[in-house]
Amino acid sequence: MRTQVAIIGAGPAGLMLGRLLDLAGVDNLILERKSADYVLGRIRAGVLEQGAVDLMDRAQVGQRLHAEGLVHDGTVLSFDGDDLRIDFTRLVGRQVTVYGQTEVTRDLMEARPDRTIYEAEDVDLHDFDGSPWVSWVKDGVTHRLDCDFIAGCDGYHGVSRASVPAAAIKTFERIYPFGWLGLLVDRPPVSQELIYARHQRGFALCSQRSLTRSRYYVQVGTDDKVEDWSDDRFWDELRRRLNEETAAAMQTGPSIEKSIAQLRSFVAEPLRFGRLFLAGDAAHIVPPTGAKGLNLAMSDVDMLAEALIGFYRDGTSTGLDGYSARALTRIWKAERFSWWMTGLLHDFPDDGDFGRRMQRAEFDYLAGSLAAQQSLAENYTGLPQ
After folding, report:
1. Is 72 a catalytic residue?
2. Domain, as residue range, for 155
3. For the whole model, what pTM was predicted?
4. Active-site hit among 99, 196, 216, 217
5. What is the CATH number of the domain that holds 134?
6. For position 115, what pLDDT does the model report?
7. Torsion angle (degrees, nearest 10) of CA 337, 57, 318, 327
8. Mean per-residue pLDDT of the chain
9. 380 tagged catalytic
10. Which one is catalytic: 176, 199, 287, 292?
C-alpha cells in the first residue's frame, strides 16, 4: 500500500488533519490502535476557541456544532466566594463554544468513514529520515504502508514520539501535586457559563456538555482513587468549594462517569524529525485549567495541513521547514497561560500561607485591572497562529 501522508492516531488531531488533506486532494490514511467505539467513548472536555470553530467550518464539519454548541460570552472566576466575571465579548470581541471533544471526533469520523484503519496493532514507524513507511498488524496479518510523510497524532503515550531517538528530542515537563476528580451527570448546568473556583479546600470547576448534561471537577490529591469517592461525597465536597448561592442552585444526581486526571505540563522539541511530524498530545500536554488541550491540537494540525498542502501544491518545503518553530511559539504561549491559571486557582500544599496570599493578591489585581482582564480574555478565547 502507498499513500502521501500516513497519520498515526484517530483522535481529533489526526482526524482533522486527514479531513483537511482530503479537501485539498492530498491522499492520506489514518492508523488507530483502538476501535472506533473506544475512541468515541473517551470523555474529554470541549471548550472551543473561535479559531477551532472556524477550523471546523473550513473542514465542512461545523453544522452540528453550530446547532448544538453553547456559545459563551464570558466565564466566572471565584475566590473564597467572591465572584469575578470575565466578559470576553466586551473585552476582546470574541467568544468560546462549549462542544464536547467526543462530538468533534464524531463529526470528523463521519466525514471520512473509509480512510481510517481501526484496531491496528503493533504500529511501527520506519526510516522517517529517508523513505518512510509504517507497519502494523491487523487480524493477525502484518501490513506495510509506504508514504512521503508521517504525522504523529497518537497522543502522549503513542508510538510516534517514542520512535524518535532520545538524542534528537528534548522534553520539558512539570507534574503538578494534585489531580482533578471529574463527574458527569445528566442534570442542567448550575450556571450558563463556566465557574472556576478557588477555595481553601482546593479548586473546583462547574462545566457543562449541553443544556441537560453537566461536568463538575474538584481538586484531589495524587493518592486519591475514584473508588474512594462516592457520588454523595463528591457533591458534598463540591458544594463546600462554591459560594452559597451557587451551591444551593446546583442540581445533583447519579454520576454517568467519574474519573481522576493527573495534571501535567509537557512540551517536546522539536516537532519535526526528517519526514516525521508531531502534533497534538504527542507534542504537548497542558493542564486543563485554561481549556487549551484540544484547541492546541487543532492549531497544530491546521499549521501542518497548510504546510503539507503547500508542498504538494507548490512544490515548496518552506511551510514544512517552519512548522516546528511556528507551532512551538503558540504552544509555549498556551502552556504559559495554562500554568498561570493553574497557579492562580489551585491549592499547592507546599506554598503555605504566603502562596495563598499571593494568589489572593493576583485575584484582587485581576478584579481591579481592565488590562489584566483583557489579557485573560485574549488568551482564553485564543491567540492568533
Report:
1. yes
2. 5-46+101-173+264-343
3. 0.94
4. 196
5. 3.50.50.60
6. 87
7. 10
8. 95
9. yes
10. 292
